[in-house]
Amino acid sequence: MTAAPQPISRLQWMLGTLSLPRSWRSGLGPIIAAVVLAAIVLTAIFAPLIAPHDPLTMNTVQRLKGPSEIYPLGTDAYGRDLFSRIVTGGRISLFIGIGAALVSVFIGLIIGLVSGFFRLADAIIMRLMDSLMAIPSILLAIALVSLNGPSIWSVMAAITIPEIPRVVRLVRSVILSAREEPYVEAAIALGTSMPKILWRHLMPNTLAPLTVQGTYICASAILTEAILSFLGAGVSTEIPTWGNIMAEGRVYFQIKPSLIFWPGLMLSLCILSINLLGDTARDVLDPRLKKREA
Length: 294
Known about the structure:
The protein is mainly α. It has helices at residues 10-15, 22-45, 47-50, 82-117, 119-133, 137-148, 152-178, 182-189, 194-202, 207-230, 242-249, 258-285, 287-293.
């Protein structure tokens, strides 16, 4: 008998393929993804030491220069070092991605615990979450940034708010199943306080799915920030991010395509690495996949 087909992962969907070899997802692939992501993160952390020039310093005499010993990736339309801007821009993009993932998971976890355990609160909370999910996330993000002005915190809030309902629904589904377990009923019968039941007995059940969901949110937040910045509705254009760098370079794409290629490559490698690690974490943490493989 042939094995049952595996579900298509997010990474497979992005690449437009029908399958990824199991050896790649569980062996060499995650290792390469971890190394690439670690290199990007370390480069962003130590950007002030790695960048050879100030990413904001303009030099119109050196505008649109090609790669050289002084400028490893050349310069942009304002004579700024492209390599320094890409390295520094990674700090903002990663900060927004990681920050949005942590905040949305934390808030979604608390609301999801309450919604899944208390039936009366569930009806009210889920209607609010459904209302938020009915609004396209990119349009909501653009509206919030337009109201509050372009800044890092506005973009992070605009990305985080649409992600919270998804986390709430995930946590709620786990709690609805876990609260019927005998050990939870025993804790209630023994008079254990509600906060203790929620945090000690129910919350640990959500850690595995939240870990996978957090990686997806992080990758999605980095991509959304780049989209907003590319559309001119993201972080202020004075702040270098991968999206801002590509937005400025699109005018000169025919003259110098590297202005979009290099930041786009960094963005793609970062998102693909996070998604591949998320898929690997899902394979490891989801017991249903282990049973299916057996």
